[in-house]
């Protein structure tokens, strides 16, 4: 059976995980000692939180995974899951180690009642079970649970680490690529390894991994096109800016929100704009985004944004 590359090339051990050396060293120390506290992994998506939890289980239990339970809290988020499934698994002793592991992915989706039930379960069954909680926003985890855990904060992966890992995959698959294509993947993924690998697989399916193929399958504009759109608008060349906007929306299939997000990102790369002008542009982009969220027509609002940007330097 063919696996998606995100699973096929998922690291199996902690030493294979890239970009988080200080955190990984701490986790390796726990594995080496054969003991660990409850763990809380917090950070953005696609940076290795789930992979780290799976690697810990692999190193402690090998292929025999009867002592490891993985639950996705966004699917099973109610108090009954804690009272039944989690408690039933936690109360029995491990068959091959000192303790079992329960991995709760997306734990910030647990309801308040479920979290309050979980904190007592974590305390009561510490002798037989350890918990690993993974979340995007640690602020959504109640303080009593955070205080019971050793907190590991994962950050977005450095571009160099993602590039190195992508090149390893491309060589293993025997695919053609160029550095401009990898740069495009890094631009779109913004430090998300999972998204980088998915983009890589999608782009390789249509041809070489180059800039054109990457941007065509990710429905994102080239940064140069967004900067050109901003420059034309700031120079009061409204009709030219509007023509480029048409091209981005009709030929590239970008939505109004896609364009606004990229505008917001590229504002800071406008070397010819003063700080005061950048502040005014951010304000105008934010206003346009608000109107789109409220349900306004995206074409009208984007053209109105270009018209307002033409007045920034007046």
What does this protein look like?
By secondary structure, the chain is of the alpha/beta class. It has three domains: 5-153, Rossmann fold (3-Layer(aba) Sandwich), CATH 3.40.50.300; 159-218, Helicase, Ruva Protein, domain 3, CATH 1.10.8.60; 223-309, Zinc Finger, Delta Prime, domain 3, CATH 1.20.272. Helices cover 56% and strands 9% of the residues. The chain is built from 15 helices and five strands. It has helices spanning 5-8, 21-33, 49-61, 79-90, 112-124, 143-148, 159-173, 179-189, 193-206, 211-218, 223-234, 238-251, 256-266, 275-293, 298-309; strands at 38-42, 68-72, 100-105, 129-135, 149-153. A five-stranded parallel sheet has the order 2-3-4-1-5, with helices on both faces. Helix 4 links the parallel strand 2 and strand 3. The protein is elongated. The N and C termini lie far apart (62 Å). The relative contact order is 0.10. The mean pLDDT is 90.
Kindly summarize this structure in a few lines.
This protein has 314 residues and is an alpha/beta fold. The protein is built from 15 helices and five strands.
């Amino acid at each position: 059976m063919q696996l998606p590359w995100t699973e096929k090339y998922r690291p199996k051990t902690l030493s294979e995980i890239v970009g988080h050396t200080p955190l990984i060293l701490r986790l390796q120390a726990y594995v080496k000692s054969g003991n660990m506290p409850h763990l809380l992994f917090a950070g953005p998506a696609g940076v290795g939180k789930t992979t780290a939890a799976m690697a810990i289980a692999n190193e402690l239990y090998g292929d025999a995974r009867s002592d490891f339970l993985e639950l996705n809290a966004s699917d099973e988020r109610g108090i009954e899951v804690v009272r039944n499934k989690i408690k039933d698994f936690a109360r029995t002793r491990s068959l091959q180690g000192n303790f079992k592991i329960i991995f709760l992915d997306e734990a910030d989706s647990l309801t308040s009642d479920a979290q309050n039930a979980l904190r007592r379960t974590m305390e009561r069954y510490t002798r037989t079970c350890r918990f690993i909680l993974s979340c995007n926003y640690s602020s959504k985890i109640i303080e009593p649970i955070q205080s019971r855990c050793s907190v590991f904060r994962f950050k977005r992966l450095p571009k160099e680490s993602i590039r190195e890992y992508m090149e390893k995959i491309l060589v293993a698959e025997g695919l053609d690529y160029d550095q401009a294509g990898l740069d495009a993947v890094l631009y779109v993924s913004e430090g998300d390894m999972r998204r980088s690998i998915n983009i890589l697989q999608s782009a390789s399916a249509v041809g070489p991994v180059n800039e054109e193929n990457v941007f065509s399958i990710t429905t994102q504009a080239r940064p140069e096109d967004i900067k050109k759109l901003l420059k034309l608008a700031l120079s009061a060349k409204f009709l030219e800016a509007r023509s480029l906007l048409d091209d981005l929306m009709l030929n590239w299939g970008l939505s109004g929100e896609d364009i606004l997000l990229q505008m917001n990102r590229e504002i800071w790369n406008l070397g010819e704009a003063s700080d005061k002008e950048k502040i005014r542009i951010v304000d105008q982009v934010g206003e346009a985004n608000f109107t789109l969220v409220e349900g306004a027509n995206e074409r009208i609002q984007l053209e109105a944004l270009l018209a307002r940007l033409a007045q920034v330097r007046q």
